[in-house]
Specification:
- The chain has about 400 residues and is of the alpha/beta class.
- The protein has twelve helices and 13 strands.
- It is globular, with a radius of gyration of 27 Å.
- The termini are far apart.
- The relative contact order is 0.13.
Amino acid sequence: MKTARMAPAGLAATVAAAAAVAAYTWRRRQHARRRLRAHCWWDVPPGLLAVLETSVDVSTVELTVGASGCPSDVEVCVFPNAAWEARVDVDGLASLASLVAIVVPYAGIMPKHLDRLRAILGGRLGSTGEGGVALHNLHHNGPITAEMAIALLLAAAKRLIPADRRIRQHDWRPRGLPFAGAQVDPPEPMVMLDGRTALVLGLGGVGSRVAAVCAALGMAVLATKRSARLGGEGGGSGIEVHPPGALRELLPRADALLVCLPGTEETRGLIGAEELALLPRHAVVVNVGRGAVIDEHALYAALREGRLHGAGLDVWWSYPATYEEALCKPPSAFPYGELDRVVLSPHRGGGIGVADLELARMRRIGEMLSAAGRDGVERMPHRWDFGLGY
């Protein structure tokens, strides 16, 4: 028996019909698929809200905003900022049975906030089991923090602040320009970075950018990264990457030490008097990570005694707790402000309240929620690791 062959036109029609049925079925399934329910727990200003809404994939995320209340069936809550305790109904948080994730939209999460969340959610916080609530932070300020690190490096290497202060008084002597028949003061010391070596501690979102800029300035770049292997490895753009255990071997090679590490038990006091003594006398130290990574007294003593060329600090050991303290609180128990070798910045690197950063924050929140809606909450980026502390 011969099998009848379908005419080409009939075959094409059958294929087209099957494709149409498949497309219809896919659309129905997509329509029927439940969207992720997310809530931003504050009254987002209209301009920022527009950026947030355009950054969220509404086909996979059902987004609500507002400080007055949170839907009882919400799955992901986004807190407003570091002052969330005063703006979030923390008592109502524990009653959200569907809650699976909290987003705290800034880079570091303060210990007191972790303690508060543990008190509210108990064993649910950080649990991977049923009813568990994951904690996520946000790395939207990585670029501007890296820019601050480079600004501090350049300002400290060039002794820019004392030179600025003197030219404001019409004093040109930091230039060292000779005049006929006159005694000339030596110029304000500077370190030329081209051809020198930078050591970047922490090769994350901030450190990787800092390393790339240092390389662009003509510096050889060393870096430490928790996941790196012994012996060093290539990190791209000629960056030599080492594990944290190689720190003491790397310090004597570093003309600039740039700290881009989070504040954890592992990093606390990582740079002490012994480590600072391994640096060359012309070295510059920059810290945009956390103040406690560097020993407070050891760094002050090294700078006061001229054992380092300079330092640029954006993070500190003491912070104001109130507005009144913000007017007069010293950032350290030691008078760093009396040292011309130091460039001081009041932890501005994160760009709190800066318009560009708030727009970036909204975009990144939208991207995170969209990723959770598309791929599942368990794949949402920047999950907090309670073991590592960041």
